[in-house]
Amino acid sequence: MNTNASNTTASHPITPNTTAPNTTASHTTASHTPAAGATASRTRRAALAVAAAVLAGLAAPATASAAPDAGRNPGDAEVAPARYTHQALAWQPCAKQPALDCATMTAPRDWHHADAGADVTIAVSRHRAGDPAKRKGTLLMAAGGPGASGLLRPANLATAAPAVGAAYDIVGFDQRGVGESTRAVCQTPEEFQDFLAGDFRDQSPAAIDRVVANSKKLAASCQERTGDLLPYLNTEQTAHDIDLFRGLLGEQKLSYFGPSYASMIGAYYGTLFPHRVERMILDSNIGFDGTWEKFELGQPMSFQRRFDEDFVPWLAARDATYHWGSTPEEVQAHWEQRRAALHDQPIVDGSLTIGPNQLDNGAISAIYERDTFPFLAQALTAVDDWQGAGPAARTMAGRLFGQYLSPEFLAEYFSVTCNDTPWTKDMDTWVQRGAENTARYPLAGARTLAFSAVCAAWPTAPAPKVKVTGAHLPTVLMLNSVHDPATYYEAALGAHRALRGSKLVTVTGSGDHGQYPTANSCVTDVVESYLLGGRAPERDLVCPTPQAG
Questions:
Q1: How far apart are CA 105 and CA 334, in angstroms?
Q2: DSSP element (H, E) containing 267
Q3: Kind of pairing between the strands at 277-283 and 168-173
Q4: Is the pTM of this model over 0.70?
Q5: Interior CA angle at 245 toward 242 and 249, to 5°?
Q6: Which domains are seen in the chain, by residue range?
Q7: What DSSP string runs through 526-540?
Q8: Using one digit for the tens of pLDDT, what is the confidence trace for 460-517?
Q9: Which residue, 105, 327, 483, 516, is most buried by CB atoms nearer than 10 A?
Q10: 474: closest CA among 499, 498, 496?
């Protein structure tokens, strides 16, 4: 999960980094080995059935495409009515990105009862292969979060990875609940500011009561304002949307690139539709082998590790520029002093308020990538002396500390994370866990109670369980850095074990979130050999990060 606003997606959630460059748009991972000979005859029969449908001029039904032996889970979706599988995509240049074509497709609200309830609309996009003569197929990329928009990301990937852009039609979409698709609605901007206000470290009874009340209010507002769409904003339904899109594109198979939360989307899609996957890259991986609760309880540790072991020493080495301390101990003491001062007297400048939670949130978003460390350092100089700070530093502080997340992002974030898998409902348990995480991992641990209490109060039942195994998939390629704050390496190892047959590229010397495309030639060579040459690594690999200044 990514709460970073750059391009992917999460902190206590996995959120997108609002200040980082667009890097999440191009992360991928993949998995497994082909099915063995015992299923070969059944696979051939399935292929013949598909061929017959094509010859008859029919698109293969988007949700009925998995053969009986394809490893599907209980609760599979029913066959999609023809009004979905036979719709035409009316491609037009995207209003916000003329290099892309955009269209809208209609999907069932609930893929398990396709004739019940109002439809949803899904905004989709396409970047045509730059070299049609060498076209290898269609590469679908999804966005992180949950809550980030993926509609315009194919253009970013085609520019950042020109060899891939030449060989593939790169397609994207806004997941149900997001952006130009049918959206989730939970809170107004004013209500959202109340949710993030104050100091999540405050363990006084009054502060705890306020946090729990705000979390319950957020959950109730999602039910009230999103209505009967709410239970169907989940990863399993999104996987079915993807297969509908595949069918409407006329493709028998897709390749897939999924960074951050999109790694979970890819793992679910590959589990439900393994025979529709050509290649798959999962970059910066959610712990999709377990529950969201388990995964998010690991994030306070990883955000603290990234802050303490990577950013703080980096800042101490640059005391001559930023004047925040010449040793890690001095920087940490300075941080605590400044945070305590903001608790007592927040900075208020027009509509901007910078209190202790905003300070934490800005740091959380800026440590997704090393390239954004200078942004955080510059913003900290302004917080140190707001009246004396120059306009550039104050502008950076306003962007970093004043624009973290949005009510639209969190509406989808909570819908997916609270819907996908079960959560502990006992609020006293969360009060205790929140206190423990605040004491041990204060940067992101302090908000454990606020975020987890939303899911504890969530009004809908969990979505159908999807157990990821890697069965019947081609080799999936997975990427992860060792100090990733949001999609931490320990969770990636668990996901790698669950996705049997996958190959993991461990990026050492890095804590960046999102490994492709980057300047790391080792990662680039592995990914592009896989996508362009069909060569998957024979074993797990290690790619060191080039040393930066």
A1: 52
A2: helix 261-272
A3: unpaired
A4: yes
A5: 140
A6: 27-181+231-292+472-544 (3.40.50.1820)
A7: HHHHHHHH----SS-
A8: 999 998 999 999 999 999 999 999 999 999 999 999 999 999 999 999 999 999 999 9
A9: 516
A10: 499
Token look-up 């999936």 returns: 476
User: What's the length of the chain?
Assistant: 549
pLDDT of residue 548: 61
- Type of residue found at 209: D
The number of CA neighbours under 13 Å toward the Cβ of 9 is 36
Name the token pair of 401: 């500390």
Placement of tokens 């398990």 in the chain:
112
Q: What is the DSSP letter of 348?
A: E
Exposed / middle / buried, residue 43 (Cβ in 10 Å: 0-12, 13-18, 19+): middle
Q: Is 260 a catalytic site residue?
A: yes
127 among known catalytic residues: no
Which CB contacts under 8 angstroms, 24+ apart, belong to 79-83? 79/114, 80/108, 80/111, 80/114, 80/244, 81/108, 81/114, 81/115
Which residue type, as a one-letter code, is found at position 338?
Answer: R
Determine whether 275 is an active site residue: no
Which residues have C-beta within 8 Å of that of residue 186, sequence separation ≥ 6? 218, 221, 222, 225, 226, 407, 410, 411, 414
E strands, 324-405, are: 347-349, 352-354
Q: Tell me which residue of 43, 32, 31 sits closest to 69, measured CA to CA.
A: 43
- Active-site residue, from 125, 181, 260, 302: 260
Q: Which of 174, 243, 420, 484 is catalytic?
A: 484
Strand duo 120-127 + 168-173: pairing = antiparallel
Tokens read off for 355: 């209190």
Please give the distance of CA 513 from its chain centroid, rounded to a whole number: 10
Check if the beta carbon of residue 478 is closer than 8 Å to that of residue 280: no
- Compute the CA torsion angle 370, 178, 271, 8 (nearest 10 deg): 0
Q: Nearest 5°: CA angle at 472, between 470 and 474?
A: 80
| DSSP for 67-104, written as a single string | -TTS-PPTTPPPPPPHHHHTPPP--EEETTEEEEEEEE
Task: Report the distance separating Cα 36 and Cα 492, nearest Å.
Answer: 26
Catalytic residue of the set 27, 32, 496, 513: 513
Amino acid at 381: T
Mean per-residue pLDDT over the chain, rounded: 88
